[in-house]
Design brief:
By secondary structure, this protein is α+β, with helices and mostly antiparallel strands. The protein has helices at 3-6, 14-19, 34-37, 97-103, 125-135; strands spanning 23-28, 46-54, 60-73, 80-94, 107-108, 111-112, 115-117. The strands form two sheets. It has a five-stranded mixed sheet with strand order 1-2-3-4-7. The longest helix is centred in the last third of the chain and has 11 residues, at 125-135. The model is unreliable at 1-8 (pLDDT under 50).
Length: 161
């Protein structure tokens, strides 16, 4: 048995990360993002950069940027195109529904805070970023303005009725 087989995995708790103002960069494994992976093809592992904080009320906050690459079909011609899916968000983290409901829509300064309901006190990067990446799937995959499948944007002269 090697030393790595006997080590206990380190558990990073959200509240401890917030108290220390931790900044963490983590790889987001494609295999761990089952819901996102079902919506795209050929998804690569991605990256997430998270910054934790605690507000004056003792609430845990996170600021995150994350990105992955994948292939999605063009809505016009159906051809697969590689896209980079990027998500940026700031939110409060709540460990139960009652707390989340109490915080939802609360104002901090002049901004309304988003709240993410987390499954437990320990850091789970996929739990934090997968929904955001899904919500940031591009609505337009093909940016080629010369594509033959692109619909015409001009329809000729107007005709009198």
């Amino acid at each position: 048995m090697t030393a790595t087989e006997t080590q206990t995995p380190i558990s990073l708790r959200y509240v401890d990360l917030a108290r220390t103002g931790a900044d963490i960069d983590r790889e987001v494994k494609a295999a761990s993002c089952s819901r996102l992976k079902a919506l795209v093809r050929g998804m690569s592992d991605g990256i997430a950069s998270l910054s934790f904080s605690m507000d004056e009320q003792g609430r845990v906050g996170v600021s995150c940027t994350s990105s992955v690459s994948a292939f999605m079909p063009c809505q016009l011609c159906g051809e697969e195109r590689e896209v980079t899916i990027q998500a940026e968000f700031e939110a409060l983290l709540a460990e139960d529904e009652v707390t989340a409901a109490g915080w939802k829509g609360s104002e901090v300064g002049d901004t309304v805070e988003d709240v993410i309901l987390v499954a437990g006190p320990d850091l789970d990067v996929v739990e934090l970023v997968e929904d955001e990446l899904i919500m940031h799937l591009p609505t337009r995959v093909c940016m080629d303005d010369t594509c033959e499948s692109r619909p015409a944007l001009e329809f000729g002269p107007a005709q009198d009725a």
